Each structure stands twice: as C-alpha cells, then as structure tokens.
Amino acid sequence: MLLKEKKTLVVDLDVQGNSTQYLLGHKISESEKTIANFFKDSLGISLFGGDKGGLESTIHETPFPNLFVLPSHPDLEALHSRLESRYKIFKLKEALDKLDGFDAIYIDTPPMLNFYSQSALIAADKCLIPFDCDSFARDALYTLMNSVAEVKADHNHNLEVEGIVVNQYQKQANLPRELVDGLIAEQLPVLESKISPSVKVRESHSASQPLVHYAPNHKLTDEYRALYAEIH
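Below the sequence we write its predicted structure tokens.
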C-alpha cells in the first residue's frame, strides 16, 4: 500500500484551521487564497473575483508528496450567517463535483453541526465519526448520527456513515471496552481499527508533519495505517 501514489486533497472547513497549519506548517497570509474566498465568490463579495465558484485557484500544495490542502481562514466565522441566510448550502458540493485530478478528497469539518459541516455532509459520499471513549462522547454520537440521517433524507441520498472511529482507546481499561461493546451491541458501525492515546499526535502537530512522516515506525502510526486499510 503506497499512500503517496494517491493524489489527495484535504478541504479544511474548520474556522480554527488546524489542518491547514498542520499540513502547510504555517498560517495562511492575507494575500493567499483560501476556502473563504470560494464562499465570498458565491456571495459576490470576493476581492479576487473572476473564479465563478471554482476551487482550483484556492488549492495549495503541501510539502508532502501528492498531498494538497484547501485552506481554512478566520473569515469563515463572519461569513457563516450570510451563507446560511442566502442558502448557499449546495455550493461546496457543486464545486467539488467539478473538481478533477484527485483520487481522494477528505473534508475536515467543524466540531459542531453548522452551515459548514452540513455543506460537507451534502458534498460527501461517506463520513467518518470519531468517538472518544467517554459518556459525553456517546451522547454526542447519537445526536450526530441523527443529524447525518436527516441530511441523508433531505439533501444527500447517497450519504453513508462509513464507520465510527474509536479514538483514545485503552484496551486495558474497563470503561472504554464497555462503551465500545455497547455501541457494537446496538449494531452501530464501529470500525475494527482503534486509535490509542499518545503524545506522538501532539508532537506531530507541533512539527507540522503527519505521523507517517514524523514517526513512521511508531505503534500509533501502524494503527492509522490499519484504519486507512480498513476504509479503503
């Protein structure tokens, strides 16, 4: 399995822009085009103009082979209410459908259900739902599953939950095992691959290097490789 052979795009819809900084190694400057410019174009207020809703000019190459990112920007927060009021919810799907040349596109969504996360669900074929092993995460999971079902029924009949990714999993502890076993008993789509807690994740964030580059032989990297193999 050669990950570098797949040309991959990450669309960062989270206003915090963690994926953007993680993959590019720096914050986006005011002169660089981002996903905010795409949405401004859809509202007719982009300073750049002329793109007519296209995404190509907002895509940035990362330092890693065949990995590209469509960066986030803080302006997304101010744009949210205007995009919602003018019902631009299908704009991302329309633009991604026209985008050629990528083997895979992943959309990083905000942690809450809002205009941007709904836009992502409408544009997506499948979604992955992370599950941190605690009771609060379980309650949030049920809410999110209902929201995905609603988007599927109303806007995107092809949308499927590809799986629930169990994160922060400690197999020696009772509570994580009980919570995961409970989800499986409810016949929820829990993936076999589970991600353990590790400081290596924060270290890779600080270094702006994906784990496969930062710590290629680490146990956690192997867990992510197993997760990738399971969903492909």
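Residues 135-154 form the longest helix (20 residues).
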